[in-house]
Input
Amino acid sequence: MNPLDLPVLSTVEDDFSAQLDRLLDWQDGEASAGIELAVREIVQTVRERGDEALVEYTNRFDRRQVDAAHNLEIGTERLEEAVSRVPVDQLRALQGAAERIRNYHEYQKESSWSFTDPLGNELGQKITPLERVGVYVPGGQASYPSSVLMTLIPAAVAGVDELIVLVPTPDDRANDLVLAALHIAGAHRVFSIGGAQAVAALAYGTGLVPRVDKIVGPGGAYVAEAKRQVFGHVGIDIIAGPSEILVVADGSTDPEWVAMDLFSQAEHDAAAQSIMLCPDRAYIEKVRDLMSDRLPQMVRADIIRASLEGRGALIQTRDMSEAITVANRIAPEHLELHVSNPDDLIDDVRHAGAIFCGAHSGETLGDYVAGPSHVLPTFGTARFGSPLGVYDFVKRSSVIRMSPAGAAELADIAVPLAEAEGLHAHARAAAVRAGQS
Output
């Protein structure tokens, strides 16, 4: 096997900024004109023809022979049967991860609150769980029971009334581990539907699939484009891009640990991105040599190579402060601080989906069992996005209860503001509460 051709960059190079821009430029996540048009047709067809369209698309795209829409639903008994078929060690792992995820998200629960101002007005905020949430679970080339737990459990902790899950089963093959995870996580109804048609069904409802208030969960390019198109008719979580990891290292960690963490993201797919920032050139070379040496041992070596050579890099910085500056510019999904004292740096981290502090805090543990959801902002959206959590499954309503004296006094402020905006009925509505003519 040829040596790994992993780029090594340096921030002292005159064109480093341009090099970094090229490295971070990911066009595959933007739907091509062909995908956009295809998805638009699918969404419109499902909206118009409902269950009939779902059956047709499922048979065509998933190579199935469903004769009626009701056969697309996966009953509770089938989920329970899957639990009984899962190997004991895997079932225990699912249950252990579910417990940790549930415990973590209990801390995110918000409460309604109120206060009374000096005028006797009661003001506050009411927290209300969403009524119905749709969760998309990939079931094609990749099946991730961990994502089932990471999406459904925060919604369940939030108190969502009904969790509707759509998961494709190409060639009529369902993944027992995914079905078992759905049972453990508390799915209420499950349908074997995938692709853009699944998103459309959740957004608009059909005779079989109920309309939901919000759609969450990862998917391929067609699913992502469908979520983009239905947003506004329904809430969505994020438009996710390829998985990312950024390691900031000071040279104190065993280089093999860093190499394996970079590999762990690269093995997702060729579009995944693995980057390391470090001021120590000798350490960078150690990591690079070790990655080249270990690559032939990896089961998914071809995918890892394509990812690292296409979108990966090892970057030498002037110092650790500059490493954090560059990290904030990248705004990664996963940020690992492989440094002797993470507390010295964490306050300066502004943009990251999840921050793993210290060498023992491997991102892989976060993917499965640490507790926080692994559904994270990608492609630089950590600049404004957050991990999926309980707060994504609740609404906040303002509560306003005015006292007679408060209404009268505040009218003196509201009336001139309304008149200045030319909204005289607004002004009048405030004035009558103050006894003004």
Notes: The mean pLDDT is 95.
